[in-house]
Amino acid sequence: MQNEHGYQNFSLGGFNFQRDEYFTHITWETADGRPMSHTMDVGNFLRALMRDVAWGFFYGWVNFDEVIGTVNHYSTVDLYAGSYNGAMKDAKIDRIENFPTDDIRQLFEAMLADWTNAGFDPFAAPQETESPYGPKNGDNMPAITRARELAKRCVGLEGDLPLRTDERGAPVNRAFADVPQDKPELHPEPGFENEVHAFNLFAFLSRSQVTWNPSFTSVVKNSFMCPTSEEHILPIIHGNDRVEWFFQMCDEIHWNCDHKESGEPLARVIMKAGDMAAMPAYCRHQGFSPKRSMLLVWENGSPTLVDDIKSGAAPQVPVQF
Amino acid sequence: MSNHYVTRFGSLQDYEKGRVEPIDDDVKNYAFSNCFEIANNSAPYEKIVFGQNMQYVLETLRAEGDSPWFTCAHDEFALCMDGELEIHLIKLNADKAVQDAEKEGSVLVEGEPEGVKMGWIKMGRGHQAMLPAGSAYQFRSSKPAVIVLQTCKGDLSIERWADICQTT
Prior knowledge:
The complex is a heterodimer. Chain A has six helices and 18 strands. Chain A has helices at residues 42-54, 86-90, 101-115, 141-144, 201-206, 304-311; strands at residues 10-12, 15-19, 23-29, 35-41, 61-63, 68-72, 76-81, 95-100, 185-188, 198-200, 218-220, 223-233, 237-239, 244-250, 253-259, 265-271, 275-279, 283-300. In chain A, helix 1 packs across helix 3 (101-115). By secondary structure, chain B is mainly beta. Chain B has one domain: Jelly Rolls (Sandwich), CATH 2.60.120.10. Chain B contains two helices and twelve strands; from the N terminus they run ββαββββββββββα. In chain B, a hairpin with a 2-residue loop joins strand 3 (47-53) and strand 4 (56-66). The longest helix of chain B has 6 residues, at 35-40. Strand 16 (265-271) of chain A pairs antiparallel with strand 1 (19-22) of chain B.
């Protein structure tokens, strides 16, 4: 059933979601029955929702803002309002519910499909997309159903993730027009054409059509190089359940790092070309990229790490010295 | 007015390091370093760990001259962050390859590499090369260059966290 603005309303457990021309309104009841509400800019909400859906609820916490978000338990997902906001938690006005992953995924996919208007691309930088606002106006299914680009061994190998080209619909982005598009020289002996391999990673990234959406480009066992092009603000505040590493390959990103349970500020991290930094497992972080930049997100995707996290055996800090 | 964007990469000669600005935390927990600074303070082909995630590492190598011949039981990947270099590859004879298939990290080849020439690669800034499992590889660079190596922690990995990371 559509509301007066043409959008569907959605409910999951004790949470209700409505959108109007500018905002998303989330309502819930507290444990003692009090009605509570929260409002987000609908563009920011859809950008966050897009990442949560595309990343399969990611590692750990996906905070849409300081109030709303999800926690991935890798077969179930928590949906919460205020549970990781120190003031709201202390006031006992938060709500958290656990759902089977398929249930929350299906609801989020339906909400994203219905609330994303024609012309608005939640993956695009704000300067590169039309407005999310206004009454219901069509949809943008191609933009919100992009498959993540995941190399199995290395980009460009036969049978693996192909290189990005004009012909494949991946022109060089306006902010990376000066990035060289040259190729490494390959001199394989006969029979080793698919082993003597290299590609231009920076050219590959200069042709990314999305922001804040890592691809896999090379894989060593469960070590995944996940580079991405970043512009404007990371649409979520990512709360780690494991240590996460960032390597800034060009330009700069400024990170706000807060405690993931309370939201209390911990540090700012200013990263410039060549800088490496880890995000400890106890923090949540949000990045600000003044110009489109290249960031290597380096992930440990070991399936046994989930058990280590649950048992408390996984380290909270990257290294002790 | 249209904007003319300039993409800022770093180099051994020209880089600007960022920083951690602590509010209520220990800066050491962010393991903040810079690959150009590390390479400027390293001997050629020292494998300096600057990222560590359980058994996995990212290492910075200063490429200058010819490296020793390395080999590894698993794939590795070399990203050139500055300069130009060549990578020469040999498919090692079975008896010369790493015998333990589970051995992690690269090791030195004993003596001259014996096997079949696979070919070579010439790469510059931003290029990433695969170093296939079971191959012997040698870096060659006439001028200093910087490599970031995706691999596992091994016998040759060097940890100097207190020297490379911001501590205050």
